[in-house]
């Protein structure tokens, strides 16, 4: 059905824009849609909590959902179609074909979530083949995901323009995320340590420090001073290869993942640009 709709839109010379999401929408998602409107005239949003990108001990079962509210929000955004497939529709019984990348998934989140980017690349491929967009918008919030998708689109000649949209934050700086819903009031305070550590890094670089390890140490200390934080990684790396950088002699991305209570939160910032 979705494919037939997309074919029809293409025959009408519409420019199809896809914004893939896992639902439980917030202002960050809506900002992607606003950005998307600038790039085409048929806006499609997908809502799908993709089981293949969750590890066995992750939050697939508890991932927050509110489809009714999501649809209401999307109606106000001038969205032309919402694609809400179920897992059976996406993954048939005998499913056995996956898209994998050789290098990019070895770094950052991929190191502790070994099947995550295989799941992401596969589902995004399937969404691309179903929705047939000309343009797709992804958030810089999931920096590694954006880089992985860009690489995949280049490598496999998808011919889809990938737009990266900036991270929307709460007034105090916390990056908006559906997973913030897991936080208690005390954990919400600890969650701000991710943003604070990125700000601290920015200050240190401004003051002339170029040694990545010094900055990572400062960030680690800051985050660990907040209760219920458990750092997965803090990395300062090349903006394209995601390989760690020792001396900050060019723009870099500082990326981190921290468990706060049961919420695994990520954030990142381009530094020294
Ligand atoms: P998710 O529903 O978390 O899979 O996110 C769907 C899309 O929204 C992804 O491209 C994310 O990078 C993007 N996104 C999530 N949080 C934010 C945010 N705070 N600001 C901008 N984009 C975001």
What is the straight-line distance between the termini? 45 Å
Identify the strand order in the major beta sheet: 3-2-1-4-5
C-alpha-based Rg, rounded: 19 Å
| Pattern of helices and strands | HEHEHEHHHEHEHHEEE
Strand proportion, as a percent range, falls in 15-25%
- Distinct ligands: adenosine monophosphate
Average pLDDT reading: 98
* Biggest β-sheet description: 5 strands, parallel
Helix/strand class: alpha/beta
CATH class of the largest domain equals Alpha Beta
Helicity level: 25-40%
Specify the CATH architecture of the largest domain. 3-Layer(aba) Sandwich
Could you tell me the number of beta strands?
8
Q: How many separate domains make up the residues? A: 2
- What is the CATH topology classification name of the largest domain? Rossmann fold
Number of helices: 9
What global shape is seen? globular
Find the CATH superfamily of the largest domain.
HUPs
Detail the poorly predicted runs. none
Any key phrases for this structure?
single chain; 273 residues; alpha/beta; Rossmann fold; Pantoate--beta-alanine Ligase, Chain: A,domain 2; 9 helices; binds adenosine monophosphate
What does this structure look like?
The protein has 273 residues and is an alpha/beta fold. The protein contains nine helices and eight strands. The chain has a five-stranded parallel β-sheet with strand order 3-2-1-4-5, with helices on both faces. Strand 4 (135-139), helix 7 and strand 5 (161-165) form a beta-alpha-beta unit. Helix 6 (116-131) packs across helix 7 (143-155) and helix 8 runs antiparallel to helix 9. Bound molecules: adenosine monophosphate.
């Amino acid at each position: 059905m979705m494919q037939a709709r997309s074919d029809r839109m293409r025959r009408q010379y519409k420019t199809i824009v896809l914004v893939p999401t896992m639902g439980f929408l917030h202002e960050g998602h809506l900002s992607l849609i606003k950005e998307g409107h600038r790039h085409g005239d048929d806006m499609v949003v997908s809502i799908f909590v993709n089981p293949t990108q969750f590890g066995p001990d992750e939050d697939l079962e508890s991932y927050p959902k509110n489809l009714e509210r999501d649809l209401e929000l999307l109606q106000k955004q001038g969205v032309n179609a919402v694609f809400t497939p179920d897992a059976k529709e996406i993954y048939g019984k005998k499913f056995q074909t996956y898209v994998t990348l050789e290098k990019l998934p070895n770094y950052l989140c991929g190191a502790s979530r070994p099947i995550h980017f295989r799941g992401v690349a596969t589902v995004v491929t399937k969404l691309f083949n179903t929705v047939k967009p000309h343009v797709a918008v992804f958030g810089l919030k999931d920096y590694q995901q954006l880089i992985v998708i860009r690489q995949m689109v280049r490598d496999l000649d998808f011919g889809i323009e990938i737009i990266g949209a900036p991270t929307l934050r709460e007034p105090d700086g916390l990056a908006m995320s559906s997973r913030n819903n897991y936080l208690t009031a005390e954990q919400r305070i600890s969650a701000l340590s991710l943003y604070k550590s990125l700000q601290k890094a920015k200050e240190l670089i401004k003051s002339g420090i170029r040694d990545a390890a010094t900055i990572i140490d400062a960030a680690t200390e800051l985050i660990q001073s907040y209760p219920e934080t458990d750092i997965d990684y803090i990395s300062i790396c090349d903006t394209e290869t995601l390989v760690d950088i020792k001396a900050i002699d060019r723009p870099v991305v500082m990326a981190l993942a921290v468990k706060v209570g049961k919420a695994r939160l990520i954030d990142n910032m381009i530094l020294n640009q």
